Amino acid sequence: MDEFVFVKEATSIRKEPNSNAKVIKSAAYSHKYRTTGIVKTNTGNKSDEWYEVFFDNQLGYIPKSAVEKREFDWNDMMKKVDKTNKFIREAVSANKKIYVLDDYVPLGGGESGKRDKFGNRANQSEFGYTDKSFKDYINIPDRTIMIVEEENDKYVKVKIDAYDNGTYYLKPSTKRYLKDAGITGEITRFIYVDRASQNEMIIEKAGDKWNVVTSSFVTTGKDAGNSFATPYGTFLIAYSKPVMQYTGSDNKTVVGDAKNAVRFSGGGYMHSIPSVFEPKNTREQRKAATAKKIGTYPESHKCIRHYDDQIKFIYDWLGNSTPGHSEGFRVPSVPTVMLVK
Prior knowledge:
This protein is mainly beta.
């Protein structure tokens, strides 16, 4: 689905780019069609525009007003992959340890704060200051990759590849959250999430080539109320676990769960279709309704929702370098990085 249109309101696909042409297919909300371009109407108001779409081995036309153009940004993905690996190569060659921010506290970090220039909030993050005055800052999300360039009793100067090759200053007390990432060479596995298009691509390197492992539409986080947008950045996958439970409004009582959860930043997980336990007799219907929203618009509280079979495939693909963990945590078989656009 390199370039496609997302149907935001029910409409018709017609044989020609005008509203009087023969209807060849009904297009319902959330349907997606590959597009080959945009054209002007061939009759009536010449300012009307239509997308030319391809489906069932035929071409058709759908009104621009009824759809939203989306695409998978292959160029951005590979640019970020190359940039991340260049950052790692340079660090390794200079004998600099690669760190990951590790400050996740289950059920903690509920603050929101102001949105920084990258769109990230303070939820489960640490402040990265732009200079030694400790005034302006960005929110550095949990699991962000970085190197330490300088440290003393006044500050810790770090370089973070994800944010414009930026140099930021941490307060000395934050140093305790920097843990050895265990990265000693280039990353060969990436998960790329495009929040604008609500899709995801997973690639793996074999020799000198990158192969697509799997792709899917997803549902990312919505920035509203007690929900947070899925954070922007470059994150080292922490671990997977068979089931992720979540609490209700009291932040204590477990009310629902989702399977095959993969933690990538703070309390943000990739996981299956979630649902609350009660009422039991409608749980499957409610899960089905949530599944229908995959690939539409951001809706989760921070996590990335997947179709059940898709996340099970990813869960197995990540592997397990820590078998027998007392809580069932599975650290990926090789370091795996998530890139969130």
